[in-house]
Amino acid sequence: MTTPNKVITHVSKDYIITTEPVDSFNEEWKGGLGCLWFNLLQRNKDKIIIINGDTEECETRGSLLSKSIRVASIMQKHGIQKGDVVRFALNFHQNAYAALAGSLFIGAIPIFIEPYHNSDEAAHLLRAVKPKLVISTKDGGKFDVLSKAKESITSDVKLITLEDCEEFKQPQEAEAKFVPVPAKHIGETAAIFFSSGSTGLPKGICIPHSFLLPIDELKLLDGVKTPVIMSFDSLYWATDVYKFISALKNEGILVIAPTLDPIKLWLRIEKYMVNMISCCPYHATLLVDAGKPKDLDTSSLKSLHILGGVLPSHYREDL
């Protein structure tokens, strides 16, 4: 696998796993994920791509593209270049997807911290893969958690918040001239995700462009013109990135659920006519235990994927 030298020098050998690229290739993939996503977001800019189930805010492909370019520009302003590692500690919110896309636009390698991580967990992740820049939000005490974590490691990593970046809040003139930075080879590392830590401390997993480029979970939904997929996970988990990629490729909609209220999740299936849910066993048990509300129409739901563990048989029967 081709992996940028900058990643190798920033990764602890004790806490890293590399993955092998796939052999298939599509001409549209040339330049890697950043170029592909940039081109896809240029299409049908008025179409909704993300709905925040908690706030009912809708993000269009055009507005997400604009925000992503702004995040990319902020990172470049702070000296981030192709191959640099950037860590994000953001709420489960549509702006997190702008951070993900923006980093890929300039060839930076994104890593996300789970919203509920404490300072010790955050410090471990910072030691395992040392970023050049950390972008946080002030919401929920994340900045304080990261500031404390940063004090416990020997690194000169820079820490900033999106709220303090004025250029993120409004469209910028330079957006129209922005050009994404292409990957030289799709075997390069695109992103780093961490394992669950169920068998020890979480390990960073280097994922190449070639692994993520073919992802398309929604191809199973034949005949659905605007597929809708619901996500309960943050971008700490690779599975949430898969859902976003699938929505992006199919001009679909990703409905995110920052707050895990099972009754509200049931109601959103009907409200947004959700076609696919992909979740872990824990989230599935929440839905079963809460029970489907009476007379709720869930006929739009065509596919339910339970990933990352075993679902007890009685829950499978109830589902």
From TrEMBL:
Source organism, top-level taxon: Eukaryota
Gene Ontology MF terms in the entry: CoA-ligase activity
Family label: Belongs to the ATP-dependent AMP-binding enzyme family.
Pfam families: AMP-binding
Any one GO cellular component localisation term in the record: peroxisome
Protein name: AMP-dependent synthetase/ligase domain-containing protein
PROSITE patterns associated with the record: AMP_BINDING
Upper taxonomic lineage: Eukaryota, Metazoa, Ecdysozoa, Arthropoda, Hexapoda
Keywords: Ligase, Peroxisome
PANTHER family given in the database record: AMP-BINDING DOMAIN-CONTAINING PROTEIN-RELATED (PTHR24096:SF149), LONG-CHAIN-FATTY-ACID--COA LIGASE (PTHR24096)
